[in-house]
Write a structure and sequence with these properties.
The protein is α+β, with helices and mostly antiparallel strands and about 325 residues long. Helices cover about 30% and strands about 20% of the residues. It folds into 2 domains: about 10-90, no CATH class; about 95-320, no CATH class. The strands form 3 sheets. Strands 6, 7, 8, 9, 10 and 11 form a 6-stranded mixed sheet that branches. Strands 1-5-4 form a 3-stranded antiparallel sheet. The chain has a two-stranded antiparallel ribbon with strand order 2-3. The chain is globular, with a radius of gyration of 23 Å. It comes from Daejeonella rubra.
């Protein structure tokens, strides 16, 4: 197989390369996507040819320098003059400093808590960090949101010829539900997604494979006091809780779980604890980032809340996504 050999850089070309090689903090492969379009979140988006011109690099060196660049975030090294990269701006620097400080303060304690809760899930409040998590949630200082005139979705895979109704797509009854990210086994809560595509992504092992899907749309008139743990890279800058910054940055609350039949889901023990604290503190639910899609999910602790209304009957649609376009 032919292997591309990067052109070697000498003299002025090498000097110009040194100016820009550390600026490639992110690339297209580091960004989330919605259907087939990249959503640029990380870094200041710039086309390489514009970056080279800004640094007054002679055009004769452009192609060779582009071919030698490597993304600091993911290691991608397939660049040409019209590739887009993400440079680090002052906002990125501030966020990076904040995340490093949060990790310095809490990362080791978070790891210890995750191990502790595996062995003693019913005694988790014996752990000092667990008590701090409960205290922060009950302090009512974390962000909240209101769901008002809000449409959301639930999905299920079409498995046979049965025609589903709204009850089939609703929350499982008490005693039936499996353990979830924010519910213990048997607890009845309603998980919904902010978009149809997000709800589909949540139930599929591979979003890019076609499938037949049942989808139920819901309309929420008004539900207040939702604990808002949805956050993107830029949101860390104004997120005041250092503890929850560390929890979110270390993927503790959003980690993707395997879809096996095991009843032992240790990755959900800490998120179940967070849900217990939130319910005790009178939150109506939790909004959080999807681990599979660019939108967010919401768990509602009272699935029979009178503001939640199914819109018409569930519908079947053919999920046939196009491969993501990465530029």
């Amino acid at each position: 197989m032919h292997q591309f050999i990067k052109p070697k850089l000498f003299g002025h070309a090498k000097n110009h390369f040194q100016k820009v090689k550390d600026l490639v903090r992110y690339c297209s492969y580091d960004q989330p996507y919605d259907k087939s379009e990249v959503i640029w979140l990380y870094g200041q988006k710039r086309e390489l040819v514009d970056l080279f011109n800004a640094y007054k690099i002679p055009q004769i060196y452009h192609a060779d320098i582009a071919a030698n660049l490597v993304c600091k975030s993911c290691g991608n090294h397939d660049f040409d003059l019209h590739s887009y990269i993400g440079t680090e701006d002052e906002k990125d620097n501030q966020i990076h400093i904040k995340l490093v400080e949060a990790d310095r303060k809490f990362k080791r304690k978070i790891i210890d808590l995750q191990e502790y809760i595996k062995f003693y899930p019913s005694l988790v409040l014996d752990n000092p960090l667990a008590r701090k998590i409960q205290k922060e949630i009950e302090s009512q200082t974390l962000p909240t949101c209101v769901l008002e005139k809000f449409d959301c979705f639930r999905s299920r895979i079409v498995g046979d010829a049965k025609v589903f109704n709204s009850v089939d797509l609703g929350a499982p009854d008490v005693g039936i539900a499996r353990i979830g990210r924010y519910n213990h086994p048997g607890q009845s809560v309603l998980y919904v997604s902010e978009s149809r595509d997000c709800s589909v992504a949540e139930i599929l092992d591979d979003y890019h494979q076609p499938a037949l899907i049942w989808v139920q749309k819901y309309h929420i008139d008004r539900i207040t006091n939702i604990l808002d743990l949805k956050i993107d890279w830029g949101g860390f800058l104004n997120f005041e809780s250092v503890l929850f910054t560390a929890l979110l940055n270390n993927n503790v609350l959003e980690r993707r779980m395997s879809k096996d039949n095991s009843t032992w889901k240790p990755g959900y023990l800490l998120t179940n604890f967070v849900a217990d604290c939130a319910k005790k503190a009178q939150y109506s639910g939790i909004r959080y980032n999807s681990s599979k899609y660019s939108d967010s999910n919401i768990v509602l602790f009272d699935p029979k809340h009178n503001s939640i209304q199914a819109v018409d009957k569930p519908e079947v649609f053919i999920h046939d996504p196009q491969p993501p376009v990465v530029r």
